[in-house]
Amino acid sequence: MNNKYNWDDPEDCMTAVKKNGYFLRFVKNQTEEMCWQAIKRDNGSIDYVQKQTHEMCLYVIKQDGWNLKYVRKRTYELCLNAIKQNKNTIMYVDEKEFPEIHQIWRLLYE
Description:
- The structure is a single chain.
- The protein is built from five helices and no strands.
- By secondary structure, the chain is mainly alpha-helical.
- The longest helix has 11 residues.
């Protein structure tokens, strides 16, 4: 753990995540603003967002489709955007839950 910051102080936490989004993993009392700062700095830090919103997830997937692997609540829209961004992310799309996306993928890439 990085001891440079007081993880109980919201201002210190915001300063930390602005410098390195992955520091979000040390923040116990995350705010939505803090989470946005973290994912804008390092979009893979979505993995450490305690309360992921659809908008946050869509933002990081549009940056890099591989971020789908960190999304806890996958929706049709998120999965479709992920495969549009990177066809290999199909591995993170459950075929039983989203068979249409797998059909689209086959039409586009096979």
